[in-house]
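It would be a great kindness if you could assist me with a short task in structural biology. The matter concerns a single protein, recorded as an amino acid sequence and a row of backbone structure tokens. Kindly check, if you would, that the fold set down in the tokens agrees with what the sequence suggests. Thank you for your consideration; the sequence and its tokens are set out here:
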Amino acid sequence: MHHNPNAGKKAGFKLPGLFVLLFGLLLWLTVPLTGQDALQDAGQDTLQAEAEELISELDSLIEDAVETEPIQEEPYARSNYTKQDIRRGERLFKGLVPFGSGLHDCASCHYSKRTDTLNWNPSAWDLAMIWDENESYRISEKLNNPVGMRMLNDHQGMSITAAEERQLEAYYTEVLKKGPGELQAYPIRAFMFWGLGALMLLALIDLLITRKIKVKVPHVLILIVGLAVHMQYAVAESRALGRTQGYAPDQPIKFSHLIHAGENEIDCNYCHTISSFSLSAGIPSNNTCLNCHNVIREGTNSGRFEINKIHRAVESGEPTRWIRIHKLPDHSYFSHAQHVNAGKLECQDCHGPVEEMHILRQVEDLSMGWCLTCHRDNDVDFLGNPYFQIYKQLHQDIKDGKIDGVKAARIGGEDCMKCHY
């Protein structure tokens, strides 16, 4: 709290004068009156008038002394964070030093680095982004007055002071500078590739130049094994070029197919509305999400944080920028409409058991060989399907018992121009 300097000066100026007047009045009233009765009667009216005037002035001074200007707080501002504020804020967030209300490890829930598993709590970077985007956002209001069952349970008994709020804000500025970070796999295959390459180089140098090892068999074995492993890597990597099997990126909103398509049994076509007449299955708009989440405002696992992202996107007019997972090369043609309508395929046939996934990932490699295998091994829904009525001879062959089904490969599924035009 900061006091108004003018208020202190005003009170300090008036209070001494007040005491002087009080002291003078007491002296005036206590002085013994002597002399003649006529003089006493003559001065009585004058004394009474002066006393009333002094009392009136005294009341006025008392009112002025009491009615001081209200003390004004300094305005809240986000600036001038010191390195000490940043360090202190990081220690508070990571539970290395206690808050005034006790020891709280924020990082145990609000992770500061990317993870390979779904953490329903907002990350430190998510919190910093929300704080940075909204000038009126106050950390103290969120923690000292939590809203929603999830926050009430997780932040029970926690409160922060103005100084701790400022230190957390300072840490947020540092988090924003560093970003969310990248999740990198341990490059075991790369170590093996380059390690064998270095060993092969040493073997070749010793074999041709230094000749420290007289026996040539170890050199030859190292070269043969190294070349075999390098060739295997080259073939495998060339086949996987442009393929993203297992790809499971972090989405802007933590959307769970397990909860929506699995537990709540929402039909895939409710969200992917254009899959039956378009090349792509489409990505649902914010309005589609709000059909449910105008009423459902708190998730069982994520609380309000993730659902609030939809409402903020609608209010700002910005679409939610989902990251596409399944994508074929540009030289390939694929139509969802043809496979959903004509082929009568289920989503799981290509995308795997999506109703069991919290984080959606690419299950199949979507290679040309995988597509051709499906066309060669699986019968299409031929009989009773209007799409295949033009194949008169095949219908007749089924009636005559010559064939018991029709593979996609037989009706153009192996034609190069069907997919590459």
Observations:
- Residues 5-66 form one domain.
- The chain has 18 helices and no strands.
- The CA atoms of residues 110 and 121 lie 6 Å apart.
- Confidence is low (pLDDT under 50) at residues 1-13, 31-39.
